[in-house]
Amino acid sequence: MAPRETRAGEARAAAPAAGGRQVWRRLLARRTVRAAGLVVVLLVLTAAAAPLLTAVEGQDPTSYHNDLLDSAAGGVPTGSFGGVSAEHWLGVEPGTGRDVFARLVHGARISLLVAVGATLVQVAIGVLLGLAAGLGSRLLDQLIGNTTEVMLALPSLVFAISLMAVVPTDFSRPLLLTLVIGLLGWAGTSRLVRAQTLSLKQLDHVAAARLAGATRWRIARRELLPALAAPVLTYAAVLLPTNVVSEAGLSFLGVGVKPPTSSWGQMLSGATTWFRADPMYVLLPSALLFATVLAFTVLGDAVRTELDPRAASRLRVGTTGGPGGPGTTGEAAA
Amino acid sequence: MIRFLLRKALGLVGVLLAISLVVYAVFYLAPGDPAQLACGEKCSPAQVLQVRERLGLDAPVHLQYAHFLQGIVAGRDFSAGTGLLHCPAPCLGVSYRSGEQVTDMIAARLPVTASLALGAMVIWLVLGVGTGLLSALRRGRLGERLLTALTLAGTAVPVFVIGLVLLIVLCAQLRWLPFPSYTPLTEDPQQWFWGLLLPWFSLALIESAKYARLTRSAVLETLAEDHIRTFRAYGVGERRLVTRHALRGALTPVIALTALDLGTMFGSAVLTESLFGLPGLGKLLVTSVGLIDLPTVVGLTLVTGFCVVLANVVADVLYAVTDRRVVLT
Amino acid sequence: MSPEPLVQVRDLVVDFPVGDGHLRAVDGVGFTLEAGQALGIVGESGSGKSTVASALLGLHRGTGARTGGSVLVAGVDAVTAEGEELRRLRGGSAAMVFQDPLSALDPYHAVGDQIAEVVRVHRPVSRRAARARAVEVLDRVGIADPARRSRSRPHEFSGGMRQRVLIAMALACEPRLLVADEPTTALDVTVQAQILDLLHELRTETGAGLVLVTHDLGVVAGSVDRVLVMKDGRAVEHGPVADVLGAPREPYTRALLSAVPRIDAPAAPGQGTGPGEVLLEATDLRREFATRGGLTRRTAPVTAVDGVSLTVRAGETLGIVGESGSGKTTLGRMLVRLLEPTGGRLHYRGRDIGALGERELRPLRRELQMVFQDPVASLNPRRTIGESVADPLRVAGERDERRIRARVGELLERVGLDADWYHRYPHEFSGGQRQRVGIARALAPGPRLIVCDEPVSALDVTTQAHVVALLGELQRDLGLALVFVAHDLAVVRQVSDRVAVMRAGRIVEQGDADTVYDSPQHPYTKGLLAAVPVLDPVEATARRHARLAAAGA
Amino acid sequence: MSRPTSTPRRLAAASATVALVVGAAACGPKADGGGGTGKDAAPQRGGTLTVLNQNPQDQFDPARLYTSGGGNVPSLVFRTLTTRNRADGAAGTKVVPDLATDTGTPSEGATVWTYHLRDGLTFEDGSPITTADIKYGIERSFAPELSGGAPYLRDWLVGAADYQGPYKDGRTLDSIETPDAKTIVFHLAKPEGDFPYLATQTQFAPVPKAKDTGTKYQDHPVSSGPYQVEKNENDGAHLVLKRNPNWSAATDDQRKAYPDTIDVQSGLDPAVINQRLSAGTGADAAAVTTDTNLGPSELAQVKDDKALAARVGTGHFGYVNYLAFNPKVKPFDNPKVRQAIAYALNRTSVVNAAGGSSLAEAATTYLPAQETFGYTPYDPFPAGATGSPEKAKEALKEAGYPDGLTVTLTHSTDTGKGYGPNLATAVQDGLKAAGITVRLEALDSTRYSKTIHTVGTEPGFFLSGWGADWPSGGPFLAPIFDGRQIVTDGYNFNSAQLDDASVNDEIDRINKITDHAEAAKRWGALDQRIGEQALTVPLFHPVYKRLYGKDVRNIVISDWTGVLDISQVAVK
Prior knowledge:
The structure holds four protein chains of four kinds.
Chain A: H1 7-11, H2 20-28, H3 31-48, H4 50-57, E1 69-70, E2 76-77, H5 100-135, H6 138-153, H7 156-166, H8 173-184, H9 187-201, H10 204-211, H11 216-252, H12 264-271, H13 279-307, H14 309-312
Antiparallel strand pairs in A: 1-2
Helix pairs in contact in A: 3-5, 3-13, 4-5, 5-6, 5-8, 5-9, 5-11, 6-9, 7-8, 9-11, 10-11, 11-12, 11-13, 12-13
Chain B: H1 2-29, H2 34-39, H3 45-55, H4 61-74, E1 76-79, E2 84-87, H5 102-137, H6 142-156, H7 159-173, H8 189-223, H9 226-233, H10 238-268, H11 270-276, H12 281-290, H13 294-322
Antiparallel strand pairs in B: 1-2
Helix pairs in contact in B: 1-13, 5-6, 5-8, 5-10, 5-13, 6-8, 7-8, 7-11, 8-10, 10-13, 11-12, 12-13
Chain C: E1 7-18, E2 21-33, E3 38-43, H1 49-56, E4 66-73, E5 76-77, H2 83-89, E6 94-97, H3 111-122, H4 127-140, H5 146-149, H6 159-171, E7 177-181, H7 189-206, E8 209-214, H8 217-221, E9 226-231, E10 234-240, H9 241-246, H10 251-259, E11 278-290, E12 301-313, E13 317-322, H11 328-335, E14 343-348, E15 351-352, H12 358-365, E16 368-371, H13 385-395, H14 401-414, H15 431-443, E17 449-453, H16 461-478, E18 481-486, H17 489-495, E19 498-503, E20 506-512, H18 513-518, H19 523-531, H20 537-552
């Protein structure tokens, strides 16, 4: 369920970066980043204000409108563009007549919540285990390494389905989805963090901390975690949209959120067959999903470029000066 | 190298054992009664008992697992009614549902998934690496941005959407492609090719996005390296710099990722196979999960797990082969 | 003198884009170079010397840098030339030898192919002929068995051999000008001498011009005819090498020259207190690394330190000198127990600390500190320098924020920094300042012994001199014991009471610094000392002849 | 039981309730189906008929198949004692002789049934078919190795309850007598007027003992019908049948067997099947499906396309989708609560959720709307198509819930089945207006069927469905409402756990009637009597809408199966 990290990304040691504020400023200076950020902010706001927005429209996400459907034609909405009207801004759902706009904005809540939650779970477990593997004994490293391998080798879809079936139904579905996606998808993060930890461990400032008498835990917290933030953040930006799609996939297979709750995945899974009869119904959730993924990917890429000095010096004829090394002067052409 | 492979082989056995244990545990906890399912809903309790006994489900779960392990090492015998059905090692058991040997079932479906995965791989490599290269070369231009957005669209849209839309447009409306179907390569190569073209593309479109991004960043990274500067300083043209030097650098991660993806593909082509009705491993897996057909599920997860682990090893080896600086331990 | 010089640079100006504006890296530099002559461009980091070298080949084209003035190389203006003309210039008329021979070669292709590729860019020859030419130039630069070695990839060569490959590549198309940018910086001193000799030899043989860019005045002394000293993008002094090094006119040149540590000058380091009690005693110390073999190679443990015995007394400085791979860094790290010895014993004040676990070591840690080589990697870039220095204090259990501030301020001032810089981040400092922070951090827990691992090798000469002076001062004032690990023989002599010379994990010679330097016993020490570049051009030439004679004999 | 609407990716194929394979039969020019090309030219022999299906023919052993009327594809290979009449509409619900000379002679109050074989019957290898082969076929269906199939034989035959088939110890069933090679006599433990219907199932197909290979038999069962298995790949995912040279049309008046080859491809997505049928390129022009309805979205497309509309076959299979109550669970013990739900239900929403009025007919009766079941129109709780919140509130008040009520509706997660989330939310939305708040509880399909069919775990209020194994009121009502069929240690289908002596007695009385029309009337009356108790709320009777290729002719769709009968179609 999680994307595989690339070796290239894995092997790269976290590099020192300029101060956080500076990175932030540079990020905001880019037009694409601002646009992507705007999309994300809008999405979050929409999700948060979903009840308000639907109230403005005067609809709710669960009410049926049989009068807007052509029952003999399989329940396709009457009217053009999937039944778009002043009452129903984005038309109604085929087969039920539920308001598409209301379902989309309410669906955003679930999709984002589950995706963000699952990403947090993945990152938390991944960082914890990755750090433990990188800092712990050989045995522990081996153990975690093998567990990671098992996690990667498990057909996660099957396990997601089975796990969803094992848990009692009164357990909150969104939470369960979050946990299932999260618990099955941490292996990539853990590998990344382990590799990063191993290369960071070689750095002299970690040795210095050891000489200062710092405990392993203190070293992990003070010296490693801050340096891990950048690669992990970047990786999380890749995980997040994947988790949105995972949620969609599980909903598609019928083990997602409980009806009548809507999520984008659930809408998409129901929509595919309507492609010809009611294209609007397919395009809307697809477009939203696409925008979300695009926005997060752009942000992730930008963060990575800013935090990764190799990317920064990309395509420049860096003339590393004398023994002073790059960094202090303009000669490095940074 | 030998040591590396030995160590990996040992690890593989461990991983597979762990996988089978986990599958047994999950299915033991999961609701549902395989005997009842195999017998049919209207079976009487007495009949269900008989079936349970026949399937060996009356034994405690740890014994069932032990029998399963024994089958892998030494083979097992099952009652086939008129006689005994010998299932030679490595025996993964017989399906609760059909009574077929799991190994046979897997062997019958492997070519389907393999055809799907390998064909898709070719396309996603051509498409992904090509797009990545192009976007690395035309960095910052409008065309490149469009291309990047398009490859992103690939990652964002689930296969069940892309596949179905392609099917309706290409097969039903435009009739450019035949409807997907599987014909064994040995039977009719042409039909094999045409029948799988659409599934390949649906899978590849999604995968190629990843490769485009990987290629692009790897090429850019390599272009920023010192040795590129060397060749630039010797008057080597930009095109040659990219095709001979930068691409070569990008090849290593691409090859390694390809191995990994191929490995996972064997377990993850579920949605594609279901959508296009290709009787492959993924489809069998999902069906078997629904039927609580434990031997089939365990057998399939072992095979797919094996593929993933193997792919990891192959990726490591390829990594070392394509990049001599890497050493294997 | 021919009517037209080989290189004619006039009013060269290079601006790099930085943020919103531009940064002037080279500001109005001009010089000429005749065929067969050699020009040395020296300067500290940031002086713009490498930028000048790149400008000779027009390498800033297309990077966003703005170039002004004119750079005529073999009749082509590198500032304005386009397309085919520029391509012919690069590698054809002028060829560049880069600094880091490992990263300057494509790791994926055989070196012979890489050279052949360059040949084919400039000459319409067959693939086979180009390969033959590659073997020929590899042979010329002294690679043994060149036909076979041409099929090897860069990582299969040693550093010196790789540098030879790069030179071979530069020679491939018989350029009229060689530009060598810090060609020996990454190399050991003995190898450095060989490479410089090779360059000299090639120049006399082919009559090509040479531009040698370096930070090391010793390197130019024996290798060039004229010297251009640069500072902040400007040419400070320009003249024949003997004049500039022998009788510098500019104060900056003089300062630069005086900062260079002299191997022949017996220094009188901190003899103030005299040797005290034995702090650290290593007996037959060993360290093996279980390494990785290649794909097909068998794995065998590598012995980095092979039975080293030494003692360090309170208040003295022990210099450990050796070339790369000699095991000196591993030894240094074992002495402070960042690494666990795999054999032998290590006693600190009578207590065996060789096999102590991390937990038992922790109370002892504060007494054994280390200053690291790389001032970039040794400070956590995400923490303020104050926090880094305060770390040992906090670990030691100090909770009072005011006391910590005060103590950190004190330490910062002690190493010559401003106490108010507590909240600054490492990237806001220069290399020398960062190294001072590293020293302050090492001082923070109040150690008895500090191991300095190449503490100045990443610094410019002037900075280097300041840091060395600071270390000596601290040692005298605080009565510290120092273990000074370095490859630079001159620096080690400058600071050490006693010196140990390491090679391949063993100490080949150990003794009083003056004794070792003035009358080396071991042939390795002798060779090492003979390879050290000297500032006197006459002496340098004499030494070259001696080396060549020795090699020929 | 087969399910009317298309079944997208099913997680669990074990559908369960009743007839699995269903067959499909036939009929033709019915309603809008019109037959199109089918009418014009006389059907010719030859060609290849392609069958595009979702569900693989993963069982092809006559002992294991669970079919209604012998199935559609299976009936091409297996002939049985009796079979369904291959005719359009209601005529197709009749049972007719197949291997036997008549539909059976009952005696001793319908407890003994005697059959005689026709002359000249042979297997695919040319050897003659004897009654011993039929007896052996039935016996082996009791072996645990060959589990599956309908449960009736075990209940009905004397001494069959504990019988474990012939494999273990060679025991035979004494209640089946074969006095000679042409005669076979069945001894039943109780009167069963419907025995001729049961004899249509594949367990009544002859199996030559010498060729029996146990669990492997299904790879190549010995054919007694017009086709034999040529290829069976991936457990029935791809099945190719070719002509059986030893079958003679002279001995078989039901199967037409026009095409030379039948190519059954399964495991396909429903959308793909319908797209292929509608495009009709290449071999798909001569293709049909036996298990996939037009989806709602395709119906919208068909509406605008006359040519396509002419290629839709409409059929009815006896099935009902309903809301089930467990009166042992509060508040459903209160009949007024059940009535309130019946009043409140918005059947229009439900029908739309089931695919619209073309695919589902709103139902107020439990029995399907066909004469053969004994259909008697009634509506005990009339509330119009969209329900009556007022009447519901009234009933609620009487039940003691004047301020409304919250109940839990259990459903399956499987969207393809008639008990999925679509229907559940439609019910939920309808009850909202009457002040009944519905909480939904979803279970994955395997767990769902186990939960609702186990007495101890049965929820109070859930979605269910029922179809008959043959077109008669008996198999429709008895398993659901006969008190003696309550199973406490296995799968129980009497979800209301109704044990009413008068109902039980009436069922016994009707079972003795061997005149089908007479029995049907009585079943209809019984249905109404039970319906008034509101133990179930019927939702709808599904309608089959199936597309067939443009070269397919001689369309026959019977009311027995509701789908076109493969044995009748021609592709030339």
